[in-house]
Amino acid sequence: MTDAKSVRTVIVSGLSGSGKSNVVKFFEDLGYFCVDNLPPPLLSNLMDLCSKSEGGIRRLALGIDIRERDFLDDFLNEFNRFRKEGYEIELLFLETRDDIVQRRFSETRRPHPLSKWGSVIDGVRLEREKLLPLKRCADKILDTSDYHVHQLKEIITRIYFENGQGTDLNVSLVSFGFKYGIPQDLDLLFDVRFLRNPNFEQELKHLTGEDPRIQSYIMDSVETKSFLEKLSGFLDFLLPRYAKEGKHYLMIGIGCTGGKHRSVTIANILEGDIKAKGFRVRCRHRDIEQAN
Question: What is the DSSP letter of 161?
């Protein structure tokens, strides 16, 4: 049998339409024993049964929908009790923007569970209000608005499976344009709109930060070089301390106006710098394909 306190347990909850069922399936692919739509009152019983299983379940992921006030209070009491008693349990809260939820429910032609006689947006707002106490207790909050299913699986894999027990720090860089909105799940955000802008150069504006001509234009500036030197020094100080503290996933956003030139260039340079520091890092450019 396995000591119940040593079973790594992840509770997956959050807003309807945020991808909870998909995330639970991702955990199953990673070797977790999974139960989706578990009634909250059964949490304690299930954890006890898993600890007594003949095979010795060591990783458990549970999808839980909580909208009733009594269930929510009972769940939070149980969850906090488990944490105080030393169980290896955490809460992953998924959310997404209103417009994305509305689009997802429209595509599936299913009613929002809290708006059977009203609009999806009304249901979303009511659900946000009901789930606020749950969100405040979350160990991790992940906004799924900007991820398709494969990107979401990659993120869950990085957080909960890569590097063995997930104690090593994995860094994710995302470049973006402020005009298209700030990614919601960032740990650190750096605004590079103060750097010289290739968009004002007719022969450069159609290019992206992946092009050497854009990179040369941006890097041919004392201001850019000074910024990167200071940023590298800041990360020299910060990243080892995050790793020592046990943080295993860090999302850094680099934003410029349109997300095509400056943010892409700086994110690419930063990717190489972080790799040189000995950390795993991946980079994506969210808005690089957006029209000017």
Answer: T
